[in-house]
Amino acid sequence: MYKLNEEKMFFDIADGQAVVINFVTGMYYGTSTLGSAVLEKLVQKVSSDKILAELAAADGCPADMGARLDAFIKALSDKEIIVPADTEDREISFDSAAFADGFELTLDEFAEVQDLLLADPIHDVDVEEGWPVRKDDEE
After folding, report:
1. DSSP summary character for residue 131
2. Which residues, listed in sequence order, are joined to residue 4 by a DSSP beta bridge?
3. In 3-state terms, the chain is what percent helix, strand and coil (to 5)?
4. pTM
5. Dihedrals φ, ψ of 29, to 5°?
6. 11 exposure class (CB count in 10 Å sphere: 0-12, 13-18, 19+)
7. Which of 47, 49, 68, 81 is deepest in the core (most CB within 10 A)?
8. Where along the chain do its domains lie?
């Protein structure tokens, strides 16, 4: 149902934590531990139904997991991290480490390094000042 919006986003998983960078806006995103595992499955084009079935099979899965998953997918879509795509039928499972923090599916947005991420070191060069020349310095 979904894939990574490769036109705008960079995605990586490091030590079980997803990092998504929007290289158009400079915003970056982090997810909960389970959110990272779910996002990884989504960008691998696994259907949300299959993901929900696997989550529901986990011990202690809350009754509202479907609503949580829908809300998480909506948040990812609203931020244009994922876009619609054909699904690929594959077997999936979630490592027990994905549930280390429970069943929370959260998406956090950060702007702390937005200026740095938007800097263009190849083109934003000033003979007097060097680079990068911040866009607000030009005004």
Report:
1. S
2. 82
3. 35, 20, 45
4. 0.80
5. -130, 145
6. middle
7. 81
8. 2-138
